[in-house]
Design a protein that fits this description.
Order of helices and strands: EEHHHEEEHEHEE
CATH class: Alpha Beta
CATH superfamily: Gcn5-related N-acetyltransferase (GNAT)
Shape: globular
CATH topology: Aminopeptidase
Strand content: 25-35%
Number of domains: 1
Strand order of the largest sheet: 1-2-3-4-5-6-8-7
Low-confidence stretches: 1-6
Number of strands: 8
Helix content: 25-40%
CATH architecture: 3-Layer(aba) Sandwich
């Protein structure tokens, strides 16, 4: 299997450009990372303050600097403006996908478009198995997974979204390319 280790990965779709996420996108990341409505179904968001966003983006910058990153976080750019992020975390030759789009850009298919190009890129690098999870209440993310051709393979309890007071359930989806 070929390990993906290109620090200069830039991916293009019809509408989007994906570039390495990092500190240079602090302002636009904060637009969604600090927004409860944008993040209510997420386990690690919303961030409580800018310092949390800075710490996360420092980790992302460090990971991009490694010869063989364990994960890739991409900034999703639309007309040159960062509107969200898509990620893939690798463990045991499985890529776990995640995404977030600024709610001002919801409903335009950008999460699907961004995740699709990430799957295509990494499948060419030898990765064939991808998974994703979402809160069972997160209809939009579930739809993205289905549009990507992923199949629901499980439902699990014990999910704790950061902004929630109680645990919820989550779906797991998988794709083998």
């Amino acid at each position: 299997m070929v390990e993906p280790h290109n620090k200069t990965i830039e991916l293009h779709t019809e509408n989007l450009v994906l570039k390495p996420l990092g500190l240079k996108y602090l302002e636009t990341v904060n637009e969604y990372a600090l927004d409860y409505e944008n993040t209510k179904y997420m386990c690690r968001l919303p961030n409580m303050n800018t310092e949390e966003t800075v710490e996360f983006l420092k980790i992302v910058d460090e990971e991009w600097g490694k010869d063989e990153p364990a994960f890739y976080e991409f900034a999703v750019l639309y007309h040159g403006r960062q509107i969200g992020a898509v990620s893939v975390y690798f463990e045991d030759k499985i890529g776990e996908l995640g995404w977030i789009i600024n709610r001002n850009f919801w409903g335009k298919g950008f999460a699907t478009e961004a995740a699709k190009v990430v799957i295509t890129h990494f499948s060419k690098q030898g990765f064939r198995h991808f998974i994703a999870h979402c809160d069972t209440e997160n209809t939009a993310s579930r739809r993205v997974m289905e549009k990507l051709g992923m199949t629901r393979t499980g439902i699990h309890g014990g999910r704790k979204n950061r902004s929630a007071e109680t645990e919820s359930f989550e779906y797991q989806y998988e794709l083998i390319v």
